[in-house]
Design goal:
Pfam families: DUF2147. Keywords: Signal. It comes from Bosea massiliensis. Helices cover 16% and strands 51% of the residues. The protein is an alpha+beta fold and 132 residues long. Strands 1-2-3-4-5-6-7-8 form an 8-stranded antiparallel beta barrel. A hairpin with a 2-residue loop joins strand 4 and strand 5. The chain starts with a helix and ends with a strand. The relative contact order is 0.15.
Length: 132
């Protein structure tokens, strides 16, 4: 078998996998984060919606309304697509009143948000489940 025939077979196999992916009916567009999400601890819900060219997340419900966070407070903002199912922007932490560089990663009905300091050396992540 020559190198050319091996490459041709590999190319055909790759084309076949691509064709299967296109025929599967899977959407070609990025996943949609719009909607309401419940924090894995059950302590809060955040609603994501478009804000200009980005996505923003606002607290929609709190289990304990007496804490530092307030319903209606924007905690994720300027979240712009940075890959398939990924966004980068800013995250506000009501507990310490600070804003951090933020990321979001969507995988099915699970959204992981992270806020980082020191160029990403220290990060805190939270998992959210789609509520609607």
């Amino acid at each position: 078998m020559t190198i050319g025939s091996r490459l041709s077979r590999a190319g055909l196999a790759g084309f076949g996998l691509l064709a299967l992916g296109l025929a599967s009916g899977a959407p070609a567009q990025a996943q949609d984060v719009t909607g309401t999400w419940l924090r894995d601890s059950g302590a809060s819900r955040v609603r994501f919606a478009k804000c200009g060219e980005a996505m923003c997340g606002t607290l929609a419900w709190l289990k304990d309304p007496n804490g530092p966070a307030k319903v209606g407070q924007r905690i994720f903002y300027d979240m712009k697509p940075s890959g398939d199912g990924k966004w980068t922007g800013s995250a506000f932490n009501p507990e310490d009143g600070k804003t951090y560089s933020g990321t979001m990663t969507l995988a099915g009905d699970k959204l992981t948000t992270s806020g980082c300091v020191l160029g990403g050396l220290i990060c805190r992540s939270v998992v959210w489940n789609r509520a609607n």
